[in-house]
Write a structure and sequence with these properties.
Strand content: 5-15%
Distance between the termini: 101 Å
Helix content: 40-55%
CATH class of one domain: Mainly Alpha
Structural class: alpha+beta
Number of strands: 10
């Protein structure tokens, strides 16, 4: 722009200097070629005028360009400021998100089992307890002694009788099976509430699991949902069992996956051994045209084998044996001539590697349980470790600790309420899971017998919290604090926690029914307990409360 002004000034000065009026007239006469000079001056003037107009136009364009550049610079500065602000908020949001994610992972790994040992945490819970008065210690003690304590001796006698008969039945089963073709049956083990001494509801039912293995030269290759393969959410807690030869890897030889030419043979497997007839795998209780063990076929084989075994030894006993429930293939019932009966479950299982985790062929169904994906999917049971954990913790608790009493009372109250209002999504296994979490979270001295009322209240509040959040995590899966003495497989400790209440998210009708039943149980608690409690003088009750 200054250059343009300078050029204009030069042109103006040149025009003024070259103007005819600045030249003196000689003798007052005009030269002869004056007309020619005037014409040239006019042409020169016109040329300068055009050049001036052009320069003015260029100056205007330069000014417009300068203004546009300044405007663009301002816009760039504003955009930079906005971008800096946006980047700042984005970074802040990412930091907050990462902090929340770290807190969530820490909560799942360790704190998800910390069930509120702090009184402040428990104080914010228990909204359903407003207006609900729990029975005092004297009433609870009388109820436990009158209604529950007497059942322990009955359970012991029944366990002894059922175990003896089951051992005899399995021995007969081995004798009727073909050792070269049929499954090999091992000794049975007792699991569940009858063997953990907290069963209170009649009829008493013993749960026995029977491990079995394939005949030689076959073996089971087990795969769980947390073994690295991707399983959908509805298959968590399940696994598959592949029947393989002992000299074969679980993934199979490459000759099974590659089309070899007619003139090529596998050096490891002959043509005869590499092709397995479908009938052979079906004889090994596999699903049709697969190598995966079929739970339905296993139960059919087991029922037939048990029937043959009973026919062999029935003459030794003065009672009848039959399968009692159609929807529970392993449910057996002993019927005496007097009309009395004893029920027990005998269920075949497959051991997971060298642990005491088992794939169970049939699991008791409940309204909350989701449909089994297929008959080749086996549910995993940790019942043996649950029994061992309770036994291990019991050694560290005070004498006559109240942990089993709490579970027995809660199980009785829930069962009684369900008999009045119908079944709900809660099961005794959920109640036991709540107790396992509290046993790990609370110190040993908190389970003294005189703290029965407080611990029962803790269980109810923790259960209410889980129902509200629709989250009750499996005690063993994803729990990194399992005592090392149990020898629990590390693969399950490192797995993602398994939410036992996940079906509540999908089944709102069952969830609503379960919550209503739980709240109704809280309201009816005093009435249910007083119904089975002898009268206690008021003075005695007040004296205990003062203590």
């Amino acid at each position: 722009m200054p250059v343009g002004l300078f050029r204009v000034c030069v042109l103006v000065i040149t025009a003024i200097v070259n103007h005819p009026l600045f030249f003196p007239k000689e003798n007052g006469t005009v030269p002869e070629n004056s007309e020619e000079i005037i014409q040239k001056m006019k042409e020169r003037e016109e040329s300068l005028r055009l050049q001036q107009l052009r320069l003015e136009q260029e100056i205007a364009e330069q000014e417009a360009t300068q203004k546009a550049l300044e405007k663009d610079a301002v816009a760039v500065e504003e955009s930079k400021e906005e971008k800096v602000q946006w980047d700042m908020w984005t970074a802040l949001s990412m930091v907050i998100f990462l902090l929340i994610e770290l807190w969530r992972q820490d909560f799942q790994e360790g704190n998800w089992q910390d069930t509120g040992g702090e009184e402040d945490d428990m104080a914010v819970l228990g909204k359903a307890f407003k207006g609900v008065a729990l029975p005092n210690k004297a009433v609870l003690a009388s109820f436990y002694e009158k209604r529950i304590l007497g059942t322990t001796a009955d359970m012991a006698r029944m366990r002894e009788m059922v175990e003896g008969f089951a051992d005899d039945l399995l021995e007969a089963l081995r004798s009727v099976c073909n050792r070269d073709a049929d499954m090999e049956v091992e000794d049975c083990m007792g699991v569940g509430s009858m063997y953990e001494n907290w069963r209170v509801r009649k009829p008493f039912v013993c749960d026995l699991i029977v491990p079995f293995a394939p005949p030689e030269p076959y073996c089971f290759c087990c795969q769980t949902w947390c073994s690295g393969e991707s399983f959908p959410p509805d298959e968590q807690g399940y696994g598959t069992i592949k029947v393989c030869r002992a000299d074969e890897d679980a993934t199979g030889c490459i000759c099974d996956k590659t089309k070899l030419g007619e003139d090529m043979l596998c050096l490891l497997h002959s043509q005869v051994s590499s092709t397995r007839p479908s009938s052979e795998m079906e004889d090994l209780l596999c699903f049709k045209n697969t190598q995966y063990l079929d739970a339905d076929q296993v139960m059919k084989w087991f029922q037939i084998a048990v029937t043959k075994a009973w026919n062999r030894i029935s003459h030794k006993y003065e009672f009848d044996l039959s399968f009692s429930l159609l929807d529970s293939p392993g449910a057996l019932k002993i019927k005496f001539k007097s009309g009395k009966s004893i029920a027990f479950n005998l269920t075949p299982v497959v051991q997971y590697e060298n642990s005491d985790v088992y794939f169970i062929s049939h699991f008791p169904r409940s309204s909350l349980a989701a449909d089994i994906p297929s008959s080749t999917h086996w549910f995993l049971t940790f019942a043996v470790y649950e029994r061992r954990f309770i036994q291990l913790v019991s050694k560290t608790l005070p004498a006559n600790a109240c942990h089993v009493s709490c579970l027995q009372i809660l199980s009785f109250l829930h069962g009684k309420q369900c008999s009045l209002t119908g079944p709900s999504g809660l099961t005794n296994y959920h109640l036991k899971t709540v107790l396992l979490h509290l046993l790990q979270a609370r110190p040993s001295q908190d389970w003294a017998p005189e703290k029965l009322e407080a611990r029962l209240q803790d269980m109810l509040k923790f259960l209410e919290k889980c129902l509200h959040e629709k989250k009750l995590y499996h005690f063993f899966i994803g729990n990194g604090k399992v005592p090392a003495e149990l020898g629990f497989p590390i693969i399950f400790q490192r797995a993602e926690p398994l939410n036992l209440f996940r079906p509540f998210v999908l089944r709102r009708d069952i969830y609503r029914k379960t919550v209503d039943t739980f709240h109704e149980m809280l309201r009816n608690m005093s009435a249910l307990i007083n119904e089975y409690t002898v009268h206690i003088p008021l003075a005695h009750t007040n004296g205990i409360r003062k203590e």
